[in-house]
Design a protein that fits this description.
Strand order of the largest sheet: 7-3-10-9-8
CATH superfamily of the largest domain: GAF domain
Order of helices and strands: HHHEEHHHEEEEHHHHEHHEEEH
CATH class of the largest domain: Alpha Beta
Helix content: 40-55%
Number of helices: 13
Shape: elongated
Low-confidence stretches: 4-8
Largest sheet: 5 strands, antiparallel
CATH architecture of the largest domain: 2-Layer Sandwich
Radius of gyration: 25 Å
CATH topology of the largest domain: Beta-Lactamase
Number of strands: 10
Mean pLDDT: 83
Structural class: alpha+beta
Length: 355
């Protein structure tokens, strides 16, 4: 899984500077402590003196890759430093055997609805990464109709059960202006499947709107009911994106995010799912995986988080996203490997449950 840079090209660094930057970032990710030149001189294979290392660190700070907090003599990475690390210095990590075994065992032979897997997968990713995990479903308008039925719950209140071509089941309760008998609802569902099965919800909605403008829809009772119910359901679905967020409590485990104001802002972001969906849609490219670091996604929790995302595709062509959000001081190698492995396994799971 390769990261996609956001912005212009990186400056060239000498092998010595790259090695020192890699060592600083790796040490800071592990410890959370600013890194001084003496620490690096004990760790680097080049046998450089602390004075030489201090000069290189000063150059890296001047170029924007490092900064130093307050009066500390040690340095910590900037967002630019993390970006160079992820794009240039990070090895292409392979997930460990133990992690793979846990994931395979959790998902193999999954017998439930795929919609249930959409809940299980982000929980698994959150538990293994110890970060916030999310799963964003494709836009509702991209879903292809396989089956739909309407169930009378109460007078003027019905349950809509929708199944797409990938066998993902979704439910929605509608309040209707008319009280429908169950047999009328059954006929309307059968008509919609017969007439529009294999079409996307976006296509179906356009065709239903056209039918409503035709005179015959006013006189054909079956057609009228099907068009009215179908249009009401599609209007309710049109702006909806299913977003599952798991592991928000993991934020407390990261000291750099644990102050009260930061946590309040983060939890508000996670709760406002419609806003989070808008932000993810703005930042993510469906053609490739993404790594966004801090200020590169400034609207996401005030630029305090890094976001790793990998696209998955349903059998009917819709594209969704699976990934994690965590502090910029993240173990990127393992996080990238986890997201990549689980997203590929999840895509295969969807394919197996497809038509």
């Amino acid at each position: 899984m390769s990261a996609q840079a956001s912005g212009g090209g990186q400056q060239e660094l000498s092998p010595r500077a790259s090695d020192i930057l890699r060592t600083i970032i790796g040490h800071y990710i592990r410890t959370g402590e600013p890194v001084g030149s003496r620490t690096i001189s004990k760790m680097t294979w080049q046998g450089l003196s602390p004075a030489t290392i201090r000069n290189v660190m000063a150059d890296l700070e001047e170029q924007g890759y490092l900064t130093h907090p307050h009066t500390s003599a040690g340095r910590i990475p900037t967002d630019k430093g993390y970006r160079f690390y992820v794009d240039t210095l990070l090895p292409s990590g392979r997930l460990g055997a133990q992690d793979r075994a846990v994931i395979d065992t959790s998902l193999e032979g999954f017998g439930g609805e795929v919609s249930e897997a959409m809940e299980v997968v982000p929980k698994l990713l959150s538990r293994l990464s110890e970060h916030v995990a999310y799963l964003l479903a494709p836009p509702a308008s991209d879903a292809v109709l396989k089956h739909i039925e309407f169930v009378r719950l109460h007078p003027r209140r019905i349950l809509v059960v929708f199944v797409n071509q990938a066998d993902v089941v979704s439910h929605r309760v509608l309040d209707t202006g008319e009280d429908y008998e169950q047999q009328v609802l059954d006929r309307a569902g059968r008509y919609l499947v017969a007439e529009f099965g294999g079409s996307t919800l976006g296509e179906i909605r356009r065709r239903l709107v056209s039918l409503m403008a035709e005179e015959k829809a006013r006189f054909d009772g079956l057609l009228h009911d099907a068009v009215t119910l179908g249009t009401q359901y599609l209007d309710a679905e049109s702006d909806q994106r299913r977003l599952v967020v798991e592991g928000t409590a993991n934020i407390i485990n990261h000291p750099e995010l644990a102050d009260l104001d930061t946590m309040r802002n983060l939890f508000a972001t996670f709760e406002e799912k419609h806003r989070l969906v808008e932000l993810l849609d703005r930042y993510l490219d469906p053609q490739r995986p993404r790594v966004l670091i801090g200020s590169e996604a400034a609207d996401l929790a005030s630029g305090r988080l890094s976001l790793i995302a990998s696209p998955y595709r349903l059998e009917d062509g819709g594209t969704g996203w699976l990934g994690i959000m965590g502090p910029t001081r993240m173990e990127y190698e393992r996080a990238l490997a986890l997201v990549d492995y689980i997203s590929r396994l999840f895509s295969n799971l969807l394919l197996r449950h497809g038509p």
